[in-house]
Amino acid sequence: MAYAANSNLLPYNSPAICNRMASSLPLQLRLPLPTNPPFLRHRPIQCAADRQALFNRIAPVYDNLNDLLSLGQHRIWKRMAVSWSGAKAGDCVLDICCGSGDLAFLVSERVGYDGKVTGLDFSQEQLSIASSRQNSLSKPCYNNIEWVEGDALNLPFSDGTFDAITMGYGLRNVVDKRKALEEMLRVLKQGSKISILDFNKTTQPITAAIQEWMINNIVVPVASGYGLAEDYKYLSKSINEFSTGKELEELALEVGFSTSRHYEISGGLMGNLVASR
Ligand SMILES: C[S@@+](CC[C@H](N)C(=O)[O-])C[C@H]1O[C@@H](n2cnc3c(N)ncnc32)[C@H](O)[C@@H]1O
């Protein structure tokens, strides 16, 4: 393993993501990337390897920026997402695209000592921070969390493993949403739910204009203070290329979920898809 911040961190065992050259390199050679490498700064984000590099790059400031840019509100939205997942004491829950672990920690508190939480991400840097937070926060229930380096499009778990699945700001970032939902359906137990929080691709022109204005005039300028302006410009593009709530509902039904409902949050700036198997 390239690093061992915590014994709960499991190695990456999924195959190539999209950039075969990058992912076929040994883990130690691929990561960690240097901070703000100049050769990546102005490259467009095109495939999974670019996205993986981006999330590794922004990992050190990701949590601070989330608090700053949402004025702390992302904590409320994440609590809502966990609540919608239906996770309860004793459950075995998967948090996909866990990043630095916010949702996994909330799920951990909910499922308690008898439950189990798996946080999965393909960014070693994000997982390393999640693992350090687990150690420093040292809430006894957080011992029920295991961090797994893996691909949302090829989950390293058996069919019907989990009682609930959460995902925060991940679906917009995977290169194949359908495949991600199919994988969730596969590893979910019959009758269980997924809860997916993300930016809402609104159909309301005024909300879209507000969202765009906030990204261009608040998010990107603040991120530029951290040398990450180019990385956060990707946000706008990723929302434009994302699906609307209605499209997400339809996609979930198409892949085989039996019910599917998308909820708008914070005046339509955010959204949460809830679907059950
Ligand atoms: C915007 S962050 C969200 C982190 C966290 N869930 C939160 O809400 O704060 C998106 C995360 O998705 C991860 N990610 C994107 N595509 C992925 C994939 N195919 N497999 C695993 N993780 C992926 C990135 O590494 C990143 O940590």
TrEMBL record:
Pfam families in the record: Ubie_methyltran
Reactions catalysed according to its record: demethylphylloquinol + S-adenosyl-L-methionine = phylloquinol + S-adenosyl-L-homocysteine + H(+)
Annotated Gene3D superfamilies: Vaccinia Virus protein VP39
Keywords: Chloroplast, Methyltransferase, Plastid, S-adenosyl-L-methionine, Transferase
Top-level taxon: Eukaryota
Keyword Flavoprotein: no
InterPro entries the record matches: MenG, SAM-dependent_MTases_sf, UbiE/COQ5_MeTrFase, UbiE/COQ5_MeTrFase_CS
Main location: plastid
EC number(s) on file: 2.1.1.329
Annotated localization: Plastid, Chloroplast
Top EC class of this enzyme: transferase
GO cellular component terms given for this protein: chloroplast
GO BP: methylation; phylloquinone biosynthetic process
UniProt-recorded Gene Ontology molecular function terms: 2-phytyl-1,4-naphthoquinone methyltransferase activity
HAMAP family hit by this protein: MenG_phylloquinone_subfam (MF_01982), MenG_UbiE_methyltr (MF_01813)
Annotated family: Belongs to the class I-like SAM-binding methyltransferase superfamily. MenG/UbiE family.
Protein task: Involved in the biosynthesis of phylloquinone (vitamin K1). Methyltransferase required for the conversion of 2-phytyl-1,4-beta-naphthoquinol to phylloquinol.
Protein's name in the database: 2-phytyl-1,4-beta-naphthoquinone methyltransferase, chloroplastic
